[in-house]
Amino acid sequence: MKRILFVCLGNICRSPLAEGIAAHHIAQKQLDISVDSAGTSSWHQGEPPCSNSIKVAHMHGIDISSQVSRPVTDEDKNRFDCVVALDGQNLSDLESKGFQNVCLLGDFGGYNGADVPDPYYFPGFEGFEKVFEMIERSVHDLIEKVNNGSI
Question: CATH for 2-147, among 2.60.120.260, 3.40.50.300, 3.40.50.2300, 3.20.20.70?
Answer without folding.
Answer: 3.40.50.2300
